[in-house]
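Researcher: Please translate sequence to structure tokens.
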Amino acid sequence: MDYLYFGSFIYISSGLTLLARYSSTNPSRILWVSAYVTSALFSAYCTWLITKNIAVIILPSVAAILFGILTSLTMQKYTLFGILNLAFSFCLSSCVMILILTLTLDLANTSTARIATLIALTALVLLSIFDTLWGGIIVLPEFSIKYSKRDSTLKTALLQQNDKCPFVSIHVPCHQEPPELVTATLDALEKLNYENYEVIVVDNNTKDSRLWRPVQSHCQALGDRFRFYHVDPLLGAKAGAMNFALRHTNPAAELIAAVDADYIAEEEFLASLCPIFNDAKVAFVQSSHDYREWEQNPFLSSVYYYYLPIQKIVHPTTNEFNAANLVGTMCLIRKSMLEELGGWAEWSLTEDDELSVRLQARGYIGHVFADTWGRGLIPSTFEGVKKQLFRWLAGPIQEFRKNWHLHLGLEKNCQFSRAQRIIRIKRVLGHATSGLLPLQNFAAFVLGIYLIKNNIIISIPKSLLLFLLCGILMNHIKIWITIKRLGGNSLRNHCMTFMLGNALKWNAATAFIVPLFKLDLPWIRTNKFKCKHNFTRALLSTLIETTLAAIHFLGSAILFVYADFSSIDAVALLSIWMFAQAFGFSCALTMAIISENGLMNETQEAQQLSSLDEPKTIIHSEI
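Model: Translation complete:
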């Protein structure tokens, strides 16, 4: 188990180096190479002091050096800093794999068992190399990746900004939206610093005319550039509305812009992004999701820092490998290519993501940027966030089930590159961890009961405890760095975002499992109406998570009775695990209550402002 000491020290020292890099403005390569070398030497020294075993230092270090050489030769997109960071990650993996090798070979009694063990571990090594090589583009990639595609594209677009102004048809789908919300979106579109465009608003299946008629009147007031359609019935939810707008688009339009009904676009939205389409192979351009009116609300702030990393960090990085995807609003698509593919997929929960897959399979290029060109609204309740996130997570699983032949290279004329295929499959498999959460917890409890029933006592080595503690600390370092890069730096931001991530684990698990068994899923819109606080809603929307929390607390308590915490045996560790899971599930109710409390505070503030605005009656006394 001595290998885990070196792995633990490597793990935490690399995390501290990452934290220093993300907190620094110094880009010096020499400085950060020196930092990593110092971290490695410090880790080796601490390991030697504890174990006096040089082998547990040399073997993983050699593996890490070889991996770094492999990365530099095969992954040209990685910076030197990124290669060193990945080498440290692989050093950690090597410590774990060497430990597994030594333990399993000791247990293997026959030559056949040993050969089988070596084959299995060889596969594990290859999988670890693969996962580490591509994992760097998802976890804190900002200083690890060269953004050559982004930089050259934006430079070219800036030079060509005034050369051509293609006609753009902006499509705004809406369904049962607050009229004042949609009219604000249209007012922003009317102010765009761009001449050659139209706006098509499609209201689908809204029964209450008080919601859509004001929008219709507002479009008429804005002039001929704006057209409004109320269609009922119309199948296909948002995709159906977008396809309807596509059929009614001006024939002169070259580009389609998608703007959600709650998004306030920046004036330079079209002027900045349209020049990118001078490259005839460009199929779409996507700017980042972003939000407004969240800063003063603790719950909305946590959602903001939970949502934005994938938009501002992950998607722009996968874009360097032509593997990023549309996210459905504040984006531009070439009309001819959209029509070539038959429009938006009306069966899909994430029709935007599905469309980008089909476009890339045809060999077309997409661009995804971290820049903000419009801001929308975050769902104001925990229930609303759950529904929205379920759709976002379940959609890619649903799409993979439908288009699996594209991803596995079985479709004729599919032009997916290796990088595109790997990143897409890795993204889908990444959700599997959430999907397996119920099985992991059940297995942990059953194992604990088995150990108790058979009076089996397994002492947990100190090296494993250190390894687990370093893993927890590293996770919090990554959360802190991510929040800091997005502009947050308070302890409240960190704790609330961590709690929200735990609160949504069950939602993520169901979003992975449900599409595996049911392809036809209902498209649920995000409610944009102002909600009044309702603590009963908080209880009902988290009933499953609260029940799971109670079950896990009970399981932890049962194991706790038989655990030995003086030396930390296996039952004690499993009890702690069950308690941690229970805490995570209980975070759902906590966050739901916080969301309702935020709504209550907003109501009280609105009432106070209203009372201040009321005219005062002044009584003059007569003397």
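Researcher: Any highlights?
Model: Strands lie at 168-174, 197-204, 226-231, 255-258, 264-265, 282-286, 331-334, 365-368, 374-375.
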